[in-house]
Amino acid sequence: MDDDLLWNDLMNLPADPPVKRDICSLCKRPVVVCFCDQLPSERLNPVCKIVLLQHPAEEKRPLHTATILSLALTSDKFIIFRGTKFPQSKHSGLHAILNSPDTVLVYPTSEAVDLNELPKVTDSSSLRYNLVLIDGTWPQAKTIYNKSKALHSLKQVKISTPRGSEFTIRTQPTDNCLSTLETAAEALAVLENKPTVKHDLLRPLSTMCSFQFSYGAVVHESKECRLKNHTYPKLIGKRLRKLLENTSTDRSYFTEIVENHNLVLNKS
Ligand SMILES: [Zn+2]
Q1: SS3 49
Q2: Separation of CA 76 and ligand 1 centre (Å)
Q3: Ligand 1 centroid vs 204 CA: distance in angstroms?
Q4: Which of 49, 75, 86, 119 is geometrically suited to a Cys-Cys bond with 148, CB 3.0 to 4.6 A?
Q5: Distance, CA 35 to ligand 1 centroid (Å)?
Q6: Which ranges constitute the DSSP H helices of 176-237?
Q7: What global pTM score does this model have?
Q8: pLDDT, tens digit, for every residue of 81-111?
Q9: What is the per-residue pLDDT for 195?
Q10: Residues in domain DTW (predicted)?
Q11: % residues pLDDT > 90 (the chain)
Q12: What separation in Å is there between the alpha carbon of 122 and the centre of ligand 1?
């Protein structure tokens, strides 16, 4: 009985009031993990425009990288539309962007050409790309693409990078998958031949990642890397297998991983 009373007393104790944390007015993150001093001193004003098609769930993620783009680029060079299908009537202006001959979709479909094959932007040319990116987890991005027929007819480009993502907080499906910010930074730097743009855009990301590590976040290696290191615990599903096969530059390398490590392909 005494135990019951004690338990009731404990249950009825008021909860501690929430601890108030100072929030940065720019990045909306707690000031102790604010990355704003790593943003370019002046907003970058590239020739091309970044057009982000963002899954609604992405906005709520604490580590989404679109915030860095919105704070680092001038407002006319970064446009964001939210939804799970594009375009919709609420997406004012997107229809015209998707119908522009200057618009390309940066998304790795089987028809996508390498970014380096696109004509570069030069001072004398009138090229002004609208670079459309899908922002979400890989399954979300795939669903958005499949549901958005208007994206299918766009010129599609992919980015081949020998290095993996530097954004190691969130697991990327393969070593050469990049976060939205890295993709935008790479595309702008290559098409406008300005490596400094990439450096300026990725500096806050690097700081954000180091905060996460110092606060105890686990380094998420890509599934490809974990397969290589025998640490991927599951059967390889059909979707992952297909993705690895499509994105691996050397098909025999994938086969070798599977065969040498006795991994089981899930055929279902
Ligand atoms: Zn901040």
Answers
A1: strand
A2: 21
A3: 10
A4: 86
A5: 5
A6: 180-191, 195-214, 223-228
A7: 0.70
A8: 999 999 999 999 999 999 999 999 999 999 9
A9: 93
A10: 20-217
A11: 47
A12: 34
